[in-house]
Amino acid sequence: MRRACSEATSRGGGVPRALSAVAQGRPLVSVAAEGPRHDATEEAPRLWHITLSVSGAEAPLNDVRQGLEQLAHDHPFLLTSRYANDHAEIRYWEEARDLHDAAAVALRLWGEHRQTAKLPPWEIVGLEVIDRDTYHQRIAAGHGPLPATPVGVHPF
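Above: the chain's sequence. Below: its structure in token form.
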């Protein structure tokens, strides 16, 4: 959201007015009474590498593995999961407009799939969100999250 969007109704006595951001003579965003309309020239989504860590009371390893396998089936971009009887780590790629959107989706992942995938009632204890370029720079330098090999669900 651009700052101009929120100012469209805050000035002029609460009467909405249409605003346009202009680049090279073409409108990028129009804001009117019905809300923002985005032109195709707006920034495209980017890829973000997510590492989500969860932890909680001990659960049977077989149940944890089955839950993570179901999560991988439900969430097709899941790269790899590592698990133990009291914690797990999930790594995957998320497509989002910015870091805030990617993090918000990641923070909802465990809770939204807890019942359907029969995941343990663990809480999120860690989250790392890095853009694609940073991920590849870390790998090239021998730092950061190791490449997700082998792909799939594996014990620690």
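The chain has a mean pLDDT of 77.
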